[in-house]
């Protein structure tokens, strides 16, 4: 990893310290509209339970909390700095028990099987240490019929090549790619009666 790549990772990939605080402020501004588009692809209902992986500064968490006004929103992020920023943004909803934000990794989600209706990740999957393991974990925590949306803005550096294959390999069905001027998103569904996640 070059010095520039290391700095970018500390600011945006796995935000830490002063660079992480600056990166969080930048992401809150630049990713908000893209995050709104990605969340719209999930057709969020008022009582949905939704998980965001890699919630960053928490702007999408706020959006989901408004859309699922009678539901429950949870999030996981590896960055302590992002956890701090996101918790500050959703402090009231957290106090009311509607939002639950934790530090952790997608490869080991601290949630029970089939506990969420929807899950999403915005500009996150490209920095997961093990993409296949992360997708299997999301498959596990989704209810049968649950939907996943994996969004990548033009700034993420992620191409669309091979993305749908990875999602299908994790056991998801109805996999499709949606595109917008500022990025792309893979949307898929966990089967209503899944046998198991593939490659477990």
From TrEMBL:
One of its GO terms (biological process) is methylation. InterPro entries: Methyltransf_11, Methyltransf_Superfamily, SAM-dependent_MTases_sf. The keyword Methyltransferase applies. Gene3D superfamilies: Vaccinia Virus protein VP39. The keyword Transmembrane helix does not apply. Residues 51-149 form the Methyltransferase type domain. One of its GO terms (molecular function) is S-adenosylmethionine-dependent methyltransferase activity. It holds the Pfam family Methyltransf_11. Keywords: Methyltransferase, Transferase. This is Class I SAM-dependent methyltransferase. It comes from Ciceribacter ferrooxidans.
């Amino acid at each position: 990893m070059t010095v520039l790549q290391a700095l970018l990772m500390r600011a945006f990939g796995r935000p830490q310290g002063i660079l992480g605080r600056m990166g969080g402020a930048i992401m809150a501004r630049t990713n908000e509209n893209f995050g709104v588009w990605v969340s719209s692809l999930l057709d969020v209902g008022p009582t949905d339970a939704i998980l965001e992986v890699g919630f960053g500064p928490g702007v999408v968490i706020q959006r989901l909390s408004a859309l699922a006004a009678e539901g429950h929103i949870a999030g996981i992020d590896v960055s302590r700095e992002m956890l701090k920023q996101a918790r500050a943004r959703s402090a009231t909803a957290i106090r009311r028990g509607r939002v639950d934000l934790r530090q952790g990794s997608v490869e080991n989600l601290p949630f029970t099987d089939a506990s969420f209706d929807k899950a999403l990740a915005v500009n996150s999957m490209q920095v997961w240490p093990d993409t296949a393991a992360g997708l299997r974990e999301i498959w596990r925590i989704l209810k049968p019929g649950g939907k996943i949306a994996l969004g990548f803005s033009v700034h993420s550096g992620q191409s669309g090549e091979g993305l749908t294959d990875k999602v299908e390999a994790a056991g998801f069905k109805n996999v499709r790619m949606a595109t917008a001027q500022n990025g792309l998103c893979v949307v898929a569904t966990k089967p209503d009666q899944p046998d198991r996640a593939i490659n477990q």
